[in-house]
Amino acid sequence: MTIDFANLQKHYLLYKEEIDTAVHAVMDKCNFIMGEEVAQLENALAVYVGAKHAITCSSGTDALQLSLMAIGIAPGDEVITTPFTFIATAEMIAHLGAVPVFVDIDEATYNIDPAKIEAAITKKTKAIIPVSLYGQTSDMEVINAIASKHGLIVIEDAAQSFGATYKGKKSCALSDIGCTSFFPAKPLGCFGDGGAIFTDNDALAEKMRSMRVHGQSKRYHHRYIGIGGRLDTIQAAVLNVKLRHYAEDLTLRQEVARKYDTALSGKRPVPTIANGRTSAYAQYSIRVKNRNDLQNELKQHGIPTAVHYPMPLHLQECFTYLGYAKGAFPICEAVANEIMSLPMNPFLSDDEITYICGKL
């Protein structure tokens, strides 16, 4: 048996007629930038998430950058985040000349540990970016309370958790700003790069809309320093179709995860989903010993695996200047040495899950 890790082709074929029609409609109009499909998508995203504003952009990375720019992050400012995530989270902080300040993770959920955040706050701290890793949000209520106490902004990096919930509210609508990614392999993915920002703050929404088109207030009049960060119309058309089917896709992902849980129960530790939360299961990640040998063995049986993420950010060469040493965040480092993601997509069959777990 040969397993497809994300099975993007099957997902396309499932909605091929609708997607092709939507894409060809854009091509017929040749309105490739900021076409009407973009506004349609933004309205639908805002309704789905439960946020007042949805601002689409060219990637999840640009969503983070626009958010940080909009709240005025400047050189020397500090932003607290997790060292256990994709580099874009801390990279955008550093890109603006600010300082990423890392806090160790919770060993059960792999998300930032709220109990350790307050000790990292200084007079230079301006914001907190919790990452909703693998599809599950951080403890946002606690993090928001800490931020409120210290006058900080919270930006949820929800690149992996679109559709997940926290105490009945959807990820991306849990803090001052929420950012997500529509990279093709995400739970809701387009056919290239794409992202979105969510907020209830009218002023921030207006500013970010301007900043994504080079800070324009109107054509060739620039109020802010911005970026070229628009979502193209074809990607919006694809996402409009996929968003209509997303509730079903998400349910299927969660059913696959439950089947994994059942098959692995008592044999392997399964992902912990905290009370009051649901996961979008961008990944189904477990901890294993002798990971390299196990991955090679599974590969021989047609089972692909991945590692998200093998090296914590504080140990990356590009962040040497921050001065963190090995051992600074022991939980994060231990998890990074053992974490391994199994195939996860809405179309994994019972036979495939049984095969994967049996070989594992």
What does the model show?
The mean pLDDT is 98. It is built from twelve helices and 13 strands. It is globular. 38% of the residues lie in helices and 14% in strands. Helix 5 links the parallel strand 2 (78-81) and strand 3 (99-102). The protein has two domains: 8-103 and 112-244, Type I PLP-dependent aspartate aminotransferase-like (Major domain) (Aspartate Aminotransferase, domain 2, 3-Layer(aba) Sandwich), CATH 3.40.640; 247-359, Aspartate Aminotransferase, domain 1. Helix 3 (36-49) runs parallel beside helix 8 and helix 4 (60-70) runs parallel beside helix 5.
Key terms:
single chain, 360 residues, alpha/beta, Aspartate Aminotransferase, domain 2, Aspartate Aminotransferase, domain 1, 2 domains, 7-stranded mixed β-sheet, two-stranded antiparallel sheet, 13 strands, globular
Write a short abstract of this structure:
The protein has 360 residues and is of the alpha/beta class.
- Average pLDDT metric: 98
β-strand amount: 5-15%
Number of DSSP strand runs: 13
CATH-defined topology of the largest domain:
Aspartate Aminotransferase, domain 2
Q: Which spans of ≥5 residues are poorly predicted at pLDDT below 50? A: none
What is the string of SSEs from the N terminus onward? HHHEHEHEEHEEEEEHEEHHEHHEH
Query: What is the CATH superfamily label of the largest domain?
Result: Type I PLP-dependent aspartate aminotransferase-like (Major domain)
Straight-line N-to-C gap: 14 Å
The main pleated sheet reads as: 7 strands, mixed
The radius of gyration over CA amounts to 20 Å
